[in-house]
Specification:
Blueprint: H1 10-17, H2 37-41, H3 46-55, E1 58-63, E2 67-72, H4 75-82, E3 88-89, H5 121-129, H6 135-154, E4 162-163, H7 164-181, H8 189-198, H9 211-234, H10 240-246, H11 255-286, H12 288-296, H13 301-312, E5 317-322, E6 326-328, E7 331-333, E8 338-342, H14 343-346, H15 382-399, E9 400-405, E10 410-411, E11 420-422, E12 424-429
Parallel strand pairs: 2-8
Antiparallel strand pairs: 1-2, 3-5, 4-12, 5-8, 6-7, 9-12, 10-11
Helix pairs in contact: 6-7, 6-15, 7-11, 8-9, 8-11, 9-10, 11-12, 11-13, 11-15, 13-15
């Protein structure tokens, strides 16, 4: 690939070149490629992963834009790779990218964040933001989360259809993100927009329509945060931006590198929490007997939260890169091969989660889900995400008899972010 060639995202290659994907049963095994965004926008990914788990759990694909890569679809294989950072590195990126060593025009902001690093640098930079999920900080934040959740729910209309994604999920997550970052509340929806465009595949009528539009909007994001970084250097607070610009392990970082870390935190907080919030409403409507159980026994909310996060799996996969020739599941992996750990499949692995396609709000081992990763890259905000989901449903139980889904949701056109763009609902308030 020449120095002047602009790289095409693997997802975009699949979006443009592999439309009208057949059902898994109609494909030759070697032709199955779970990366295709059409499968996720159409909510048809389940059978493709089910077949791979049964017939080819370490599955090879190759694309022009990415070169060689492997899909891991079984729970144990995913955990083993995720926990072995010496053999399977994060340093080349956490989503499927160009072949290692290829030269292409441009650099990903995410490449400069600690999720795309190995120890010791990863450990040092992660240490700066880790206090956000400490038990004392969560205890301090709980009343703020509860107050805001109550206010949003109290303002919901009864007897008319509205979009749960925008009205509740996005609003609650952006309020929390703005608070954590020390970001102006009045501009909070910018955080959602910037998060959405990072992994959006350009297409007519899509979240973004061109690569040029993505670059322009991310430049706006960079300029905004550069001003915020300067403000916090002069006048620090107790927010994440202040932690980063004054932290011993991060204060030396360039504005570009700081922005990469900020975007990582925004995406982690936005995509994980907002899609779990929406997935909880959709999932409980899909399994109404579980909704009935929850209404009858609200103490199940505590065990429901990790089960919903398992079932939803807000980020479908994470990537590692092989540092050496090795073997996984009898397959010969070459040095520099990319490896996709499909959390969304491991979380449905029948050998770990019985009847894994269904929701069971009292599932005893739901906490073993892979949605937050494992090992050194375990999600730093996992406890906060679970806390927000738990509080949401405690407050829902206090107010509503039912939240009814009116139609099937609209899904995100992405194989990385497993999310919703719209979910129409109506609610019925409790009589008391």
């Amino acid at each position: 690939m020449s120095d002047q060639q602009v790289w095409r995202l693997p997802e975009r290659e699949q979006m443009e070149d592999a439309t009208d994907v057949p059902e898994a049963s109609d494909l030759a095994l070697e032709d199955i490629n779970p990366l295709n965004p059409h499968l996720f926008r159409e909510n048809r990914w389940q059978s493709h992963f089910s077949r791979l788990r049964a017939e080819d759990p370490v599955h090879f694909n190759e694309l022009e834009s990415s070169g060689r890569y492997w899909s891991l679809t079984k729970y144990d294989d995913i955990r083993n790779v995720n926990s072995d950072w010496k053999r399977f590195s994060s340093a080349s990126g956490f989503v499927l990218g160009p072949p290692v060593g290829a030269k292409w025009k441009g650099m990903s902001l995410m490449q400069s964040s600690f999720i795309s690093m190995d120890p010791p640098t990863h450990t040092e930079q992660r240490r700066t933001v880790k206090p956000v999920s400490s038990p004392p900080n969560l205890r301090e934040m709980e009343p703020i989360i509860r107050e805001r959740t109550a206010a949003v729910l109290d303002a919901l209309p009864e007897g008319e259809t509205f979009d749960w994604v925008d009205t509740v999920s996005v609003e609650l997550t952006t309020l929390m993100l703005a608070t954590l970052l020390g970001f102006p509340i009045e501009d909070r929806r910018k955080l959602t927009r910037w998060s959405d465009i990072v992994f959006a595949v350009p297409e007519p009528g899509g979240v973004i329509e061109s690569g040029e539009q993505k670059i322009a909007e991310l430049m706006e994001c960079g300029e905004y945060f550069s001003r915020l970084f300067d403000q916090r250097r002069a006048d620090p607070g107790d927010d994440l931006v202040s932690m980063l610009v004054h932290g011993e392990d991060t204060k030396h970082l360039s504005a570009f590198d700081l922005l990469g870390t900020i975007l990582l935190l925004i995406i982690g907080g936005n995509d994980t929490t907002r899609n779990a919030m929406t997935g909880s409403v959709y999932g409980l409507n899909k399994y109404p007997e579980q909704y009935d159980r929850l209404n009858a026994d609200p103490s199940l909310i505590a065990s429901m939260a990790p089960e919903i996060i398992r079932w939803q799996t807000p980020l479908s996969y994470m990537r590692r890169t092989a540092n050496e020739d090795c073997e996984i599941g009898g397959k010969q992996i070459r040095k520099n091969d990319q490896i996709l750990m499909w959390y969304i499949s491991g979380n449905r692995d029948e050998s770990i989660f019985a009847n894994g396609d269904a929701i069971d709000i009292s599932r005893e081992n739901a906490f073993r889900h892979l949605s937050f990763g494992t090992g050194i890259h375990y999600c730093v905000g996992s406890r906060l995400a679970e806390l927000q989901l738990r509080i949401l449903w405690e407050e829902i139980h206090e107010r509503f008899e039912r939240i009814e889904v009116e139609s099937e949701p609209e899904w995100t056109a992405s194989s990385f972010v497993h999310g919703y763009t719209r979910l129409d609902v109506q609610l019925t308030r409790s009589a008391s």
